[in-house]
Amino acid sequence: MIIEHPYLIFLGDVPDALAAKTGLGIVDWRPEWCLGQFRLDGCQADANIPELSIAEAKEKGVKTMVVGAVNAGGVLPDHWVKPIVEALDAGLNVATGLHSRLSSIPEIKAAAEKSGAKLHDVRFSDERFATGKGDKRPGKRLLAVGTDCSVGKKYTALALEREMRERGMDADFRATGQTGVFISGRGVAIDAVVADFISGAVEWISPAADPNHWDLIEGQGSLFHPSFAGVSLGLLHGAQPDAFVVCHEPTRTTMRGVKHPLPSIQEVIDMTIALGSRTNPGIKCTGIAVNTAKLGEDEARSMLADLAREYGVPATDPIRFGVTELVDALADI
Q: What is the pTM assigned to this prediction?
């Protein structure tokens, strides 16, 4: 799936910023692709980019209107259909990460057929994936893994891509979730792939490459999460990572949405090596990325220093303090 940019970010009338995390994430990492936002009356989220009507967006060269909002159940509200049809009538492609297919809504399907615009449902892929083979392929790969869901795996991989490219390194972010697909313009939402083909889909996302090329692969879930470990394991086997960074949120005691305790960083390292060595015996942990947003700066720096001493690898908050040391640690791989 390749989504044409630049984008118009549609935020609907969501009640808060959390409900617009897809759109806000795109603006955070690909601001040059986002020419404006389109909001309905009552919208309580703001990406702080220009307000554009659909007609204005078309005039400015927008290619795709991205539905950058989420809601419970991942359904498309009825009153969002009209602006989506308006965008299609103007010749804009429309992309969404919701669980309901755009083409399942008659008015939207008819408008797309009439205008010739494309409908992108990033949680669904028309690609037919093979089962994973586990054969070692050229190129270098790093996978972001986590002690839990929503701990910064995507932001860590993107921060690594940015730093590595600034150094002149050959590196690409590889998206495995809906927001990541919008940010990169391509990829596969791994959690929507039939289980037998997850590792094969990751092999497809990160194919054979130049020996010095790095793929920074977005992680999903956690090997310890009772809801999502299956996706995490398939992703690990398909990624065949040479290196992995453990992502962690230090204030949690249980994993999101369940009562199970958070695993320790050491447990995650040990499990990732034990299972990841199935497809890459040379797998190693090269760093720790901690989301310290809920900590004061002194407390955050102290914690990161303690973690670096304890585990013998660099520890940082990629957004707050950068990833210089995480990239330095890849020099010998």
A: 0.86
